[in-house]
Amino acid sequence: MSAQPADRAALEAFWMPFTANRQFKAAPRLLARAEGMHYWTPDGRQVLDGVAGLWCVNAGHGRREITEAVSKQIAAMDYAPPFQMGHPLAFELANAIVGIAPPGIDHVFFTNSGSESVDTALKIALAWHRVRGDGTRTRLIGRERGYHGVGFGGISVGGMVNNRKYFGALLPGVDHIRHTHDPARNLFSRGLPGHGAECADDLERLVALHDASTIAAVIVEPIAGSTGVLLPPVGYLQRLRDICTKHGILLIFDEVITGFGRTGSAFAAQEFGVVPDLITCAKGISNGAVPMGAVLVKGAIYDTFMSGPEGSIELFHGYTFSAHPVACAAALATQRIYRAGLFEQARAMAPYWSDAVHALKGRRHVVDLRAYGLVAGIELEPRPQAPGARGYEAMVAAFEAGLLVRTTGDTIALSPPLIIERSQVDRIFETIAAILDRLP
Ligand SMILES: Cc1ncc(COP(=O)(O)O)c(C=O)c1O
Fold first, then answer.
1. DSSP 305-333
2. Cα 28 from Cα 11, distance rounded (Å)
3. 196, 232, 293, 432: which has the fewest C-beta neighbours closer than 10 Å?
4. Could you tell me if 257 and 127 lie in one domain?
């Protein structure tokens, strides 16, 4: 197929994910090539990548180191079974990831996506309590407005209504703490919002309702991306950690978007100084070049599983493509790039980024601005009777103006590759400002 499908019929067979298929196929937005901070459309138009693809391509597109590692690996060994067999790159990668993980988190279980990482983490949490002889702890707690992928576990603990309402009763025994979004007190906060640490106390309410002896784990995103870039209020994550510790509940941070330098630290756990028991990640682990995900686990949890008979499988879980050799090669090359100082580069750019975001204050339609590390949420006032329409039109207008952004509802979410330069930051915000000025 040429990069430019001939007509609408050629677009039909592909049922596109999380996409308004008919709307898209009537006016497709196609990408054909990528390098550095840019994409190019099939007709050669350059598009600045404001979202690292989909929060994945932290080191920028087309990194030669990654391409070469992938080609070399696929030629040397295309696939190796991960059950009862191993290959050296998987162990090397696990060590590399543990090397940048928060203290005490020293084991890695490989998956192929964020959704698989979430379901894996939830299963590890349930199994851990059972292996310890605390098998009544079966309840899983998520948070309103949370996004944890699209597996049944992830949508059950997730808190986005459209992702849940079509799919039946979901997992039993799941509950949700309240979300932290509090525009009345936190509008236009610089850095983390000052109000809302007490939202964590909602977990005490659920403990009082269900009893701690029934609760296995709590899962939250340190920064909630998919519901519009919601930053954790100062002190909130620590409070959640303290309540979990007090009641013997495992704390899972879903770092699928915050992992690998997005905040300026390797993980948000380090950035915010709060160590969970498990971390889920994906996306940036391999710079988006080959699908991969992982669950990072505290040594104490792993050790509990290792206490049974030596010859027995400790966790009945895994994927055919766990630690796929080509994904491992891509991820190892990616981690080498990260180690050379990319997270520090992101941290150094963050103040400039934040200034540029907050300079949009007062622009037409802008009702809130949120920025941290190299993340931003630009919340637009929804059009009466048409929530999401303004956001969608902003995304289309940006693409036509040569800028890739993502919108969720009426919030423009930005998460550029961490290699971004000041002139490119300027371009992103000049483009958005111009779009806001003319958007109805
Ligand atoms: C916090 C979070 N968890 C999980 C996922 C799911 O990841 P995937 O789409 O790779 O399954 C995402 C994807 O955006 C995410 O943002």
1. HTTS-TTS-S-----TTTT-HHHHHHHHH
2. 9
3. 196
4. yes
Q: Average pLDDT in the 179-191 region?
A: 95
Q: Which atom of ligand 1 is nearest to the CA of 254?
A: 1
Mean model confidence pLDDT for the chain: 97
Residue 332 sits in a domain whose CATH number is 3.40.640.10
Pocket test for ligand 1, best of 51, 257, 408 (most atoms within 8 A of CB): 257
Are residues 351 and 331 located together in one domain of the fold?
Answer: no
Q: Whose CA is nearest to atom 13 of ligand 1?
A: 149
Domain holding 381, by residue range, is: 8-63+341-438
Buried b / exposed e over 291-304, threshold 16 CB at 10 Å, is bbbbbbbbeebbeb
Quick one: average pLDDT of 335-341? 98
Q: Which residue has the tokens 């080498």?
A: 336
C-alpha 17/C-alpha 235 separation (Å) is 36
Query: Domain boundary at 337, 352, 382, which?
Result: 337
- Indicate the pTM of the whole model: 0.97
Per-residue confidence band for 7, with pLDDT thresholds at 50, 70 and 90: confident
How far lies 171's CA from each of 111, 197, 250, 251, 268, in Å? Answer: 21, 28, 18, 19, 28
Same domain, yes or no, for 78 and 102? yes
Residue 220 belongs to a domain: yes
Is the residue at 3 inside a domain?
A: no
Q: Residue 147's Cα: distance from chain center in Å?
A: 9
Residue 34 CA to ligand 1 center (angstroms) comes to 22
pLDDT digits (tens, 9 = 90+) for 289-323: 999 999 999 999 999 999 989 999 999 999 999 99
